[in-house]
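Tip: read the tokens left to right.
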């Protein structure tokens, strides 16, 4: 909220008023100091802009002092508008600072100058004040905590202690602040403890242990203490947080000083706990009672199970094979036995890797992309996303309109309907914000706003919120990848066979799913998150962790703010249908189900269509329509579409293919580096930046995941240009590999 204090309406006040409307800020105007003060005490504005150009109307500095005397102004940003003087020396701003102003604004009635000032304030001082306001809540929690908390600087100077700490140690309020730990006789062996603590915290680990502390009066008390280093500016330790709890006689824990280690195999904890467990339950006593009665009950239960009418399709298949075996010759019966053995496995669609001599690049890619990780081997936790602050519509500046796109960006998007469109040219033109611009153009081409019954401004806000929640620091999984997948999705939707198959709601779902499919991606694989025990992995039970997060967060970001809620005008049932399709498509990008999706597509769509063509029914539109339009097959087609769009990099023109290969390799290298730093299992060891052969890794990925999938998709959608690029890129990588080169490009 903004309060404008101008005695008279002029171009400057009108400029700020217009800027508030454009930025979406609520605005009040006051003409006198008294009305300004009353309005502020009623509304508690975040920004106050006071006119200091005409002292004959009111004393701006006196008004600012009056506002600052109120408790409500503690976190308010107050701006002083001063006259522009070109004929005299610059005056000091110290009087303005002394009066309580946050900063000054030299008069400039340009609307965009006013708008830019407000946006800078929002993302600068106002955002900082929001954080300071939140600190009040944190300090309230600390003040009320029953645990004794002490915060020191990197030099071990006490900066904060809570009342529980002062009470426990016998000090008065404020006695400990700004004291060095060596000045406070809390522990006779403090120096020794600091050495022990430092040996842990220097490598970024917390320290926990027991020691006897001395109160101010000299009494000795035993404490259970945890000390945590806090990383701050420059990646260095800037504070230590110490959490202490008194040990009483009823709950003594014998424990030597410990350093919580990263690797379980080097863990040297020597904790000894009193055994609190009750006697173990005797399993035999629960199973041996009434053995005769139990046998009879089991036979009765099995009979009921066999008489059940609920039968899964796989059960029917197994029963048919069992029946066929009874009247089959021995060789056939044995072959059917082998078939049954395969059918009873859980991974029916995943090809089995060969012997240990299998290509290590393929093995690592399969391990890294098609599993949900190993069990945690350490005490480390990789925290992300669940506690991160996500960008929302209200915290972002308004994006440009489709009609106001700068010429360079318009030129970069000229051929966006062609497969050879260069996403990296658009990335450069938009300063790494290609998703908003490309999204506006593609969504307009497909009439998305008309289908959703939402305004273009709502769509613009939505695209910007989604793009803001992609991590620009990721080398691969950023908004450029999202824009690339959106482009590929739009290209596939324009193919004739796909247009015959899908309804308008499917097209809308596909474009939205492509846009959000990797939102808030941390640049690490599912395996990494599961091994690290991340909060996301725990939340989603180590199953499709990232894909579940992308889908859930996309809807959270969309629906939490009406400014960007593109679904708000949809009819309920239509929205539920659309939501279900979007979620299904985003989850389909998870690689553990890769072969299941591809094989189902081949068996349910490619083969029936090929059979119709072989039988001379190519012109039989009704038969083809039956294959294409069944609900089950449309689901398979949508999954295949987004899967191909998601990993289409090897089918792009060579330079784009090379750039994407470099980016994904760098992301995997960074993951391997972090796994080694944290002592986690290295899920893709070949992606070591010092030894990895990028051509080999690309060939393995293409051979294992790409060729069969794009052969199937090409047979369905007719994509000769993609297959030509794919063949050329395979030859390129083979050429580098044949020369034993491990890099992206041959030397000049």
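Filled-in amino acids:
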């Amino acid at each position: 909220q903004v309060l404008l204090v101008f005695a008279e309406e002029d171009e400057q006040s009108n400029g700020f008023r217009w800027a508030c409307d454009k930025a979406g800020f609520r605005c009040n105007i006051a003409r006198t100091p008294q009305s300004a003060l009353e309005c502020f005490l009623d509304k508690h504005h975040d920004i106050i802009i006071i006119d200091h150009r005409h002292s004959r109307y009111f004393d701006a500095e006196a008004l600012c002092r009056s506002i600052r005397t109120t408790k409500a102004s503690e976190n308010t940003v107050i701006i002083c508008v001063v006259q522009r003087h070109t004929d005299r020396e610059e005056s000091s701003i110290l009087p303005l600072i002394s009066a309580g102003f946050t900063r000054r604004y030299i008069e400039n009635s340009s609307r965009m100058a006013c708008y830019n000032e407000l946006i800078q304030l929002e993302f600068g001082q106002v955002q900082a004040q929001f954080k300071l306001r939140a600190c009040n809540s944190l300090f309230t929690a600390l003040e009320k905590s029953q645990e004794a908390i002490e915060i020191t600087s990197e030099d071990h100077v006490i900066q904060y202690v809570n009342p529980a700490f002062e009470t426990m140690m016998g000090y008065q309020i404020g006695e400990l602040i700004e004291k060095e730990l060596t000045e406070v006789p809390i522990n006779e062996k403090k120096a020794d403890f600091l050495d022990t603590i430092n040996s842990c915290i220097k490598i970024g680990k917390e320290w926990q242990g027991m020691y006897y502390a001395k109160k101010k009066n000299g009494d000795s008390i035993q404490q259970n203490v945890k000390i945590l280093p806090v990383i701050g500016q420059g990646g260095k330790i800037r504070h230590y947080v110490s959490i202490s709890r008194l040990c009483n006689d009823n709950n003594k824990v014998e424990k030597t000083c410990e350093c919580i280690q990263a690797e379980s195999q080097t863990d040297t904890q020597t904790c000894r706990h009193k055994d609190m467990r009750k006697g173990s339950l005797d399993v035999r006593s629960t199973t041996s009672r009434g053995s005769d009665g139990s046998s009879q009950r089991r036979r009765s239960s099995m009979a009921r199970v066999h008489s059940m009418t609920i039968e899964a399709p796989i059960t029917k298949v197994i029963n048919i094979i069992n029946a066929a075996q009874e009247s089959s010759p021995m060789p056939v019966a044995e072959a059917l036995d082998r078939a049954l053995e395969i059918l009873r496995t859980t991974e029916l669609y995943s090809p089995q890797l060969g012997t240990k001599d299998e290509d290590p690049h393929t093995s690592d890619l399969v391990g890294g992309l098609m599993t949900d990780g190993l069990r945690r081997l350490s005490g480390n936790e990789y925290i992300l996303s669940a506690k991160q602050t996500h960008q929302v519509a209200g915290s972002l500046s308004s994006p440009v309109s489709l009609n106001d796109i700068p010429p360079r960006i318009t030129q970069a998007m000229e051929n966006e309907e062609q497969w050879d469109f260069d996403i990296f040219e658009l990335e450069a033109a938009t300063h790494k914000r290609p998703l908003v611009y490309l999204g506006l153009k593609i969504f307009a081409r497909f009439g998305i706003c008309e289908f959703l019954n939402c305004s273009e401004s709502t769509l613009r806000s939505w695209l910007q919120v989604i793009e803001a929640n992609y991590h620009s620091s990721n080398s691969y999984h950023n908004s450029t990848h999202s824009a690339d997948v959106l482009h590929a999705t739009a290209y596939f939707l324009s193919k004739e066979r796909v247009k015959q198959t899908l309804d308008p709601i499917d097209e809308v779902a596909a474009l939205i799913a492509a846009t959000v499919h990797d939102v808030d991606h941390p640049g690490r694989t599912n395996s990494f998150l599961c091994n690290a025990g991340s909060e996301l992995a725990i939340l989603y039970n180590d199953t499709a962790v990232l894909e579940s997060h992308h889908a859930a967060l996309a809807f959270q970001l969309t629906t939490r703010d009406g400014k960007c809620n593109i679904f708000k005008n949809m009819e309920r049932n239509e929205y539920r249908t659309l939501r279900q399709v979007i979620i299904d498509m985003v989850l389909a990008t998870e690689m553990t189900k890769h072969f299941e999706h591809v094989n189902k597509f081949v068996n349910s769509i490619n083969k029936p269509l090929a059979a119709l063509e072989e039988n001379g029914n190519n012109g039989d539109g009704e038969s083809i329509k039956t294959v294409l339009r069944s609900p089950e097959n449309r689901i398979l087609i949508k999954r295949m579409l987004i899967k191909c769009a998601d990993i289409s990099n090897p089918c792009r023109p060579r330079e784009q293919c090379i750039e994407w290969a470099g980016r994904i390799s760098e992301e995997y290298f960074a993951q391997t580096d972090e796994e080694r730093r944290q002592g986690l299992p290295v899920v893709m060891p070949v992606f070591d930046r010092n030894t990895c052969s990028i051509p080999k890794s690309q060939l393995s990925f293409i051979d294992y995941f790409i060729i069969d999938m794009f052969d199937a998709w090409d047979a369905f959608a007719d994509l000769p240009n993609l297959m030509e690029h794919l063949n050329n890129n395979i030859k390129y990588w083979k050429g580098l590999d044949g020369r034993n080169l491990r890099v992206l490009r041959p030397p000049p």
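DSSP finds 30 helices and eleven strands in the chain. Residues 542 and 711 are 32 Å apart (CA to CA).
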